[in-house]
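[09:14] KT: can someone run the structure on this one? pasting the chain below
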Amino acid sequence: MLKRVPCETVEMAARKKLADRGVTVEAIAQIVYDLQKPYAENLDMASCLESADAVLNKREIQHAILVGVELDELAEKGLLSEPLLSMVRQDEGLFGVDETIALGSVFGFGSIAVTTFGYLDKQKVGIIEELDREKNRVHTFLDDLVASIAASASARLAHRIRDLEENRRLVDIRKREEEDLIG
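[09:31] RB: done, structure tokens below
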């Protein structure tokens, strides 16, 4: 029987994949900040960083990153079969598998994450735009995955801000956030 891969190993591998492709938690947090600032005048970057980091702790996100970036890298090396290789390399408009993988990981953060993902997928802001426009590498999956992480972190933060505005106890907020990390 095969041995299970420890959670820490998976998380470290996913974070390394992001870093190796030029994606930082800070760049994701900047998108979160830009999305939430109009609704939270006292918002600080530290809260956005914490939220983006918490989303990256989720296994579903980590698994999506590992699969998506691997497919991008295989396409760069020409190691996918045709016609898949061409579709991934050119980010074919009707090839929605990249969005499907990314979208699957936002469902855990509610409808606000889903709609925010759609917005980011179309608007291509910050690091998402940089990835989308880079011509020397394939980021067909990665740009959507980053949009997914930012959308989830933004939704998570929006819910936390509302909880704080409603004077919910920190222990109750943290309990809910810990439950959100399952999966």
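[09:33] KT: thanks! The first helix runs from residue 7 to 20.
[09:34] RB: yep, looked fine to me
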